Amino acid sequence: MIKKQKLFILISMMAMVLLLTLPGMAAYEPTQEYEGTTISYYSFPHGPDYNSNLEDVLAKFNELTGIEVEVTMLSWGEGNRSILSAIAAGDAPDVMYTTPSRALPIITFGNDVIEPLDDYIDEELREEVIFNEALENYKFGGTTYALGHYGDPHQFAANLDVLRDSGVEESYIEKMLDPEKEWTWDDWMYMMEKATKDTNDDGKIDQWGLAYPGGVNNASPFLHFYWNTGGKVIDTEGNIGLGGEETMLVMELFEEMMDKGLLVDGVANMTSSESDNSVFESKVAFNYTFPPEVYIARDEAGEELPEVVPVYPPVSPTGERGSFFAWNGVMMSARSENKGAAWELIKYLTVSDEYKEMIAKATGKLTPVTSESDIENLIKEEYRGLLNIGLEASSRGWYLRHEPAHPASGRIVRGYNSAVQNVLSGNMTAEEATNWLKEEAETARDEVE
Q1: For 122-198, where are the E strands, in sequence order?
Q2: How far is Cα 112 from Cα 417, in angstroms, rounded to an integer?
Q3: What letter does residue 91 receive in the DSSP assignment?
Q4: For residues 118 and 309, what is the distance between their CA atoms, to the nearest angstrom?
Q5: Which residues of the chain carry a pLDDT beneath 70?
Q6: Parallel, antiparallel, or unpaired: how do β-strands 157-159 and 308-310 relate?
Q7: 156-322+408-448 maps to CATH 3.40.190.10
Q8: In terms of Cα–Cα distance, which of 281, 322, 328, 319 is closest to 303?
Q9: Does the CA dihedral 35-38-39-40 come out positive or negative?
Q10: Where exactly does CATH 3.40.190.10 map onto the chain?
C-alpha cells in the first residue's frame, strides 16, 4: 500500500490566507424566485464518483431553489465542438463547464455568445472566495466571462517501488519529494534508464521509464513538459511562443526517450486511461500526471498497490521549474432565456458547501471556498498529497501557467499534439516537429485574426 507522505507546511501568502480562513465559511443563500424553471448544463466528466455525485448535488440544488437542471455530459476531446454546434444551431445550453483553452473560442464565436458576469458578481461573493484566481482566471479584455469552480493541480507521478527495485538511489527519490531540493531532466533520464528493463528474463523489455497519452487530443499532457521549461503557447494578443528553444527542448526530450526505448510500448497511440493505469500496474516508473482517482478506484477494489506518488516539478534545462494549477470554470449563454436561474447554478457550483464537499471527496480538488480545514477533513490523503504539492509549488512562485487563452488555441492544441505524436511515431525529428508546430500556430492565429 502507499506509504504516508509527509505534507509540507504552506508558507506563502496563499497558505496564510488558508490558515486564517474559518471552516464552514462557504454559504450559498438559495432563492425560490426561479422555482419551476428548467435550465440546461453542459459538463465534462471527472470519473464515475464525480458524475454520479453531481446528480445528487443538483438534486439538492433543485430542493433548495426549485430549479431543474438537465445535464449533458460531454467528452473532453469533442466537447467544445458540441458546444459550438449547439450555439450555431440556436440551442446553446444555459450554463457551460469550460477551461481557459476552451473558453475563448466560444466567447469569440460570435456577438453576444457568452454573458459577461461582472454585473452579477457582488461583494458578498467576493468575500466568500478564498482563491482569487478563480475570479480572475476568466477575465479577458477586462471582462469576466466565467467563474472558476474546480481547482485542479497537475504534477508528474512516480512509482517509487519500480525506482527502488531498479536500483535508483534513495537520494534521487528524496529530491523529488522535497521542495527544498532540486532534481533535473538529467536526473529524470537517469532514473528512466534504470527502470527500463526486462523484468522476467524472457528477452523482452516489459518495464519502461515513462507513460504518456500520445494518442489523445487533450491540452494538458504536452503542457506538463512545455510549461516546465517556462515556455509560452500563445497569449491573448496573438504572440506565439511555440517553436522556440522551449519547444525544441521538449521535442528533443521525447526524441531521446524514443531513441533509448524509455517510453512505454504503444505510446504513440496510448489513451489517458492506459497511461494512468500503467503506472499503477508498475509497467513504468513515471506517468505524465498523478491520477488520484485511479488510485482510489483500484484501492477500493481491493488491489495491492505499489507506492505511486505525485512529485515536485523538476528543474528544466532553461532553469525554470514550472507546473500548473488550473481553474476550470462555468459560464452562461448570453442567449439564455433563464439568466437568473443560470446565475443561481453558477453561484451554487462556486460557493456552496454541497458542491465543495462533493468534489473534495470524489476528486480531491478545490472550489474557490475550500479552506485549509476542508482540505484536512474532507479530502482523502491520497488526494491531499497532490493538492499540497500543487499549493506548495504555487507558494514558491514557480512558473505557473494555465491553458492557452486565444481563439486559435483549439487548433494549436491539435497542432502540438500532432507534433508530439509524429516524434513518438518516428515520422518527424525534434527539429522538424518544432518548425512545423511554429508554422501551424502562426497559420491558426492568422486565420482567426
Answers
A1: 139-140, 143-144, 147-154, 157-159
A2: 31
A3: -
A4: 40
A5: 1-26, 399-405
A6: antiparallel
A7: yes
A8: 281
A9: positive
A10: 13-152+324-395, 156-322+408-448
Question: In the numeric block, which cell numbers belong to residue 140?
Answer: 479577458
Distance CA 256, CA 158 (A): 20
What is the C-alpha to C-alpha distance for residues 175 and 170, in angstroms, rounded to an integer?
A: 9
Show the cell assigned to 51: 458524475
What pTM, to 2 d.p., does this model score?
A: 0.81
Q: Indicate the helix (H) or strand (E) that contains 392.
A: helix 381-395
The letter for the amino acid at 192 is: M
CB atoms within 10 A of CB 22: 8
C-alpha cell at 29: 443563500
Hey, what's the cell of 386? 497532490
The amino acid present at 423, given as its one-letter code, is V
pLDDT digit string, tens, across residues 6-38: 333 333 334 433 333 444 444 799 999 999 999
Q: Which three cell numbers stand for residue 396?
A: 514558491
For the chain, the residue count is 449
Domain 13-152+324-395 is in which class? alpha beta
